[in-house]
Each structure stands twice: as C-alpha cells, then as structure tokens.
C-alpha cells in the first residue's frame, strides 16, 4: 500500500502541504477529498489553515490506495471505508473533541494571550455560532474597563 511513500514523522499536526507530500497527492486533491469523505475533517485555524493529525494522514493514504491502486470510484471508496470502520467515525469525532484544547494551545494563542476556541466542524450553523461568539468576546473586551 505505502510503497514509494515517505514514512510519517512523529509529529502531532501536519500542514496540507506536508500531508500531501506524505500521501503522494496534490493539496487540491486533499481539499476535494474533504468534501467527498466525511471521515476526513482536518482542524482549521486562523485563515482556514488546515492541520491534519496522524490518523487523518493514514486515512488519506487509505483513500489513495482505494482510488489509485484498487480502482474504486469515489462513491465505491466511500462505501468501502464505511464497511471497514463503521465505528471509526465516532472514534474520530471523540478523538477530535478530546484533542481540541491541546490543539488550540499547540497551534497558538490569540494576541491577547487567550487561547482561541477551535472552530466546530460538524454542522454549517456552527460557523455562524463561532463568528457570533468571537464577535461577542471582542465587544466584551472593548467594554471591560482597562486596569490603571
């Protein structure tokens, strides 16, 4: 399966370029696969920068093998992944939730020293909730009297 692919280094997070190099695909392919495979959900931080974890790099390699080596179609590969790991999606969601605080601290804090909350990925209305929460925190910071 992984013939010709680089070994995955012992890092916690990989940029889209690093993940693409490790999996032998181009970054635009990874962005497309994120739309097609619900199991592939990298963390997104400031400016929508993607950060892939080790298990996601392994998932990309599995998707690549199904599509390129075994000749599956996108929908066939999607079904095959669901057959192979029906409980894997729940494990990935639990893993992301458990790593949220660690990821926020690892990927950087806001300029005021506060750690920004990770952006929710599960449903579209979370984008609005995230933006509103950020805006409310900014307003609160403006209204809080400065210490003299």
What would you note in describing this structure?
- With 148 residues, the chain is mainly α.
- The protein has a domain at 13-109: Orthogonal Bundle (Multidrug-efflux Transporter Regulator, Chain: A, Domain 2), CATH 1.10.1660.
- Helix content is 57%, strand content 7%.
- The protein has helices at 16-23, 27-36, 54-69, 74-84, 88-107, 125-143, and strands spanning 13-15, 43-45, 49-53.
- The protein is elongated, with a radius of gyration of 18 Å.
- The model is unreliable at 100-115 and 118-122 (pLDDT under 50).
Q: What class, by secondary structure content?
A: mainly alpha
CATH class of the domain at 13-109: Mainly Alpha
Number of strands: 3
Spans of at least 5 consecutive residues whose pLDDT stays below 50 are 100-115, 118-122
């Amino acid at each position: 399966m992984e013939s010709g692919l680089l070994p995955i280094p012992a890092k916690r997070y990989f940029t889209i370029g690093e993940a693409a190099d490790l999996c032998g695909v181009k970054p635009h392919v990874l962005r497309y696969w994120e739309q097609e495979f619900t199991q592939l959900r990298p963390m997104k931080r400031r400016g929508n920068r993607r950060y892939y974890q080790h298990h996601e790099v392994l998932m990309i390699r599995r998707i690549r093998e199904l599509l390129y080596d075994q000749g599956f179609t996108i929908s066939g590969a999607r079904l095959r992944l669901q057959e192979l790991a029906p409980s894997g999606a729940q494990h990935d969601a639990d893993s992301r939730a458990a790593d949220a605080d660690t990821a926020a601290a690892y990927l950087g804090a806001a300029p005021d020293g506060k750690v920004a909350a990770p952006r929710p990925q599960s449903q579209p209305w979370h984008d609005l909730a995230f933006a509103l929460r950020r805006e409310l925190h900014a307003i609160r910071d403006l209204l809080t009297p400065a210490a003299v």
